[in-house]
Design goal:
Elements lengths: L1 H19 L5 E8 L3 H14 L3 E8 L1 H9 L6 E4 L2 H9 L3 E2 L7 E2 L2 E6 L20 E4 L5 H12 L10 E4 L2 H9 L5 E5 H5 L4 E6 L2 H4 L3 E7 L5 H11 L2 H9 L8
Parallel strand pairs: 1-2, 1-3, 7-8, 7-9
Antiparallel strand pairs: 3-11, 4-11, 5-11, 6-9, 6-10
Amino acid sequence: MLKKWVSCLCMVLLLVSCTHSPDKKVTITVAAAASMKDVLTSIGKQYENKHPATHLVFNFASSGTLQKQIEQGAPMDVFISADPTSFRQLKEKRLVISKRNEPLVYNELVLIVPKQRQNGVHSLSDTTNPAVQSIAIGIPETVPAGAYAKQWLQSTHLWEKLQGKLVLAKDVRQVLTYVESENVDAGIVYRTDALSSDNVLITTKAPDSLNRKIAYDAGVVASSSQTKEAQQFIKYLYSREAKQVFKQYGFLIERK
């Protein structure tokens, strides 16, 4: 009788355990360039549907800011950078691991203006006109799009001339917001950022010699405790399925 009672009790405890034990999900923290917010949010949902045991958490910021966070030991699993230099530096310090030789995707730099208030800006040189009083770019020291914008302005001998008009933003998405809200007369962002908004117009793009430099890289943060799952997510980013989503959001899969 005692044996039967113990057996029943064990069975009940087992059933209770199975009923109340929550499904355990592995959380992957992805540190990614701000310019990838829309596309990675979309790809992330797609990935979680295919991998229900994985939960993705995104940390979007400028690549330079994310690089500093990784160097300081912030808990991250994947790093996706819009700046090849930041990515290379982390690889050289063995803080990021990448088994890929080719960039994930590419982008282009463009000049944008508010759709409802264009102020006669049709080219980069038009930004010197008195009607144009403010131009937003990312902080060159930490924002890759800002560094590229500085190079573009320097190559056209406008960097010094426009110093009094420049409004510096913490990342490329803040530049877009400034232009959308008409708080500035123009801004320099990635083509994908401009395409995400119905409130701005692209007036011109940077020369090919500069645009060829704009590439995104992805790797696993060396301190990650979820290396296997992080590698799996990166593998998916390089898949044909994910590349189709990148294309839908305006990213270039191959360099022109």
